[in-house]
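cron nightly-structures :: item 1 of 1
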Amino acid sequence: MFAGPAGTGKTTSAIAMARELYSDSWKGNFNELNASDERGIDVVRGKIKEFARTAPIGGAEFKIIFLDEADALTSDAQAALRRTMEKYSKICRFILSCNYSSKIIEPIQSRCAVFRFRPLRAEDIKTYLETIAQKEDLTISGDALDALVHVSNGDMRKAVNSLQVAASLGTTIDVDLVYHTTGMARPEDVQSLLETAISGDFIGARNRLDEIMISYGLSGEDILKQIHKTIFDLEIEDYEKVRLIDRTGEIEFRMVEGSNERIQLESLLAYLVLLGEHRGDSAD
């Protein structure tokens, strides 16, 4: 079982393994199913069982069934899969790919060796993006590469897609182009917003919020997620960060429940202003 975040190479690893095992006959011995599309018990009893019961071709010892996004399988389908895995184990092996291994029932987990994939390192993402840029005759700055790494958050697929979107607007890619095409504000802009509020300038912070949301086309939830990540970079005490994270979580809950995002974001800025005033009073 391959478990880990999206875009970290789970599907690629399964296909690479099949190609190495079966060489030219890999397509006949490898069956890929996306469990998020076909996740009912009928699929397990039909497609999966039918493929598992047939003999491998090309002299291979066994076939491989790859279930992508297996954590989307229903409980009944997983229960049926458990028996199928046992019954045809001599001629068929299963690879289950999932983002959350806890959603796979315990009897299946006990039948699998779990390989956990972690988010990719920044250096690896940069190396791959530089290779793409070289082959596509793109000029990309170092700051733009750093921005793509920040946007991707360890997800290679997202990094490549972000590069492709930026490249559709020109062959020279800079940091501003990356952030505008990916729908994310620059981290320094968000940090400036929070620091302005903590300094006690509520109107200035409110204007900065308007500027960021309009310039980058962000929704309330988008900017709130970036605020959450930026809180850890603020030069405030840890207990103040804890209170701020708690407040941010409460505001996100209100947004999800349908509250006005402008009111909620401005209430967060007001809280930051009060937090700054409290720090000033404590210092006095």
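cron nightly-structures :: done
The chain has three domains: 2-116, 122-182, 187-283.
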